[in-house]
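Sharing a chain and its predicted structure for anyone who wants a worked example. Both blocks are below, sequence first, tokens second.
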Amino acid sequence: IYTIEAERDSDYYVLTMLVPMSLIIFMAWTVFWIQPNIVPPRIAISTAAIFSLIALGVSIRLGLPKVSYMTRADIFVLGCTLLVFIALGVAVLGSRWANSDRMDLALKTNAIARWIYLLLFMIVTFGAFFAPK
């Protein structure tokens, strides 16, 4: 019988995954602060966030061991991916509403989405890293 003790250095994961992924999430969050009728920057920011997220996700996957179950890192990446796509969807929907004489609804959606998006990010982060197993 052998016993092996190991300790994981979580600082590495914070620096290489949590911080860059958070920056991408906040980049996508900025679309809610741009007027809905200004379509090109909203879509450009959303697609840049998606491409950045994909590139970071691939690099994270290469650095993590291959296992046949969902890890906390997988849950975090999946949750962040969903958030970025939600931001893109809200940006597109708000832009459509703004360009079809429903600007009041588009502005209201932006205002609500700003805070719901942050709440969802906190839930994803807590659920992935801090919730008990």
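Comments welcome. The longest helix spans residues 103-130.
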